[in-house]
Specification:
Blueprint (H helix, E strand, L loop, with lengths): L2 E5 L10 H17 L4 E4 L13 H11 L4 E8 L5 H14 L4 E6 L6 H6 L10 H14 L17 E6 L2 H10 L3 E3 L8 H11 L11 E9 L3 H19 L13 H4 L2 H10 L3 E4 L1 H15 L3 E5 L5 H17 L4
Parallel strand pairs: 1-2, 1-9, 2-3, 3-4, 4-5, 5-6, 6-7, 7-8, 7-9
Helix pairs in contact: 1-2, 1-12, 2-3, 3-5, 6-7, 8-10, 11-12
Amino acid sequence: MTAYSLLDLVPVVEGGTVSQALANAADLARHAESLGFRRYWVAEHHGMEGIASAATAVVIAHVGAATSHIRVGAGGIMLPNHAPLVIAEQFGTLDALFPGRIDLGLGRAPGSDQRVARAIRRTLDGDEHAFPQDVMELQSYFADDGRTGIRATPGAGAKPQLWILGSSLFGAQLAAALGLPYAFASHFAPGLLDEAADLYRRNFRPSDVLDKPYFMAGFNVFAGEDDEEGEYLATSTMQSFVALRTGRPSRLPPPVQGYRESLGPQGQAILGQVLSCSAIGGPETVAKGLAAFIERTGADELMLVSSIHDPEKRKRSIAIAADAMRDLVPA
């Protein structure tokens, strides 16, 4: 059976607060744990009022304390924003708090715009060699092999599971070269999904941590009791994507009947592209969508995303998805 996990953007909804978003995250993680999800990830985004996971390591600690056995981690940490030593210390601490449960997905996107990047004290210089070097430096801290001349405390000897994340071919090449698991962000940038998966698998080199490729793909699920409700619940994320792509990011809005049909050509094109890796509808429709995506990608694991305005409806959505995943029979 294909494994299934959950990416939570820790959405701050219209009319809500960051405190509520963080409380909802812990509740959702407990729910996902009870449903058999393998891991629960949060992502690093900055300067976005609708996402409450900017202090990613802190949120992971919050969720780890609220759960007992589900893996928790970052999907991901945008490593160019940070000194690798700092990330080694943060995730070494998390590994000490929650041994055997911590994942560390690494990405090279900024997770911000130029203005926010300057506030983080970094420059978006596009050096394609810096990210691989930072990943290997981070690996060295965890391995405590002395190559950096510095011992990370905490961090030395810690064993978070490292992943390379990406939405282009660069991450696929790096994950293959380093022999690490690879996660593709097809839940919002699906364009190069098939090419990246093929490149990763063809070029994979076995490593001390992985003897064969392990590929994860992001997939949106908006599940309701029937197709009409699923479509309705998805309109919150639809509004958010359109707002983000047109330069007006906001908090997660409530759903709107007939939203997609009300859009002009630009909005329709945005959603047609960004939601192409999605299952929207009732249980049967969602199950068919999941099965088709697994058949297409051969993914070892799906990272499901279900950003829904109502926390209880979101919990129901991932429960429907979990039921579908458990019922899938491997080809």
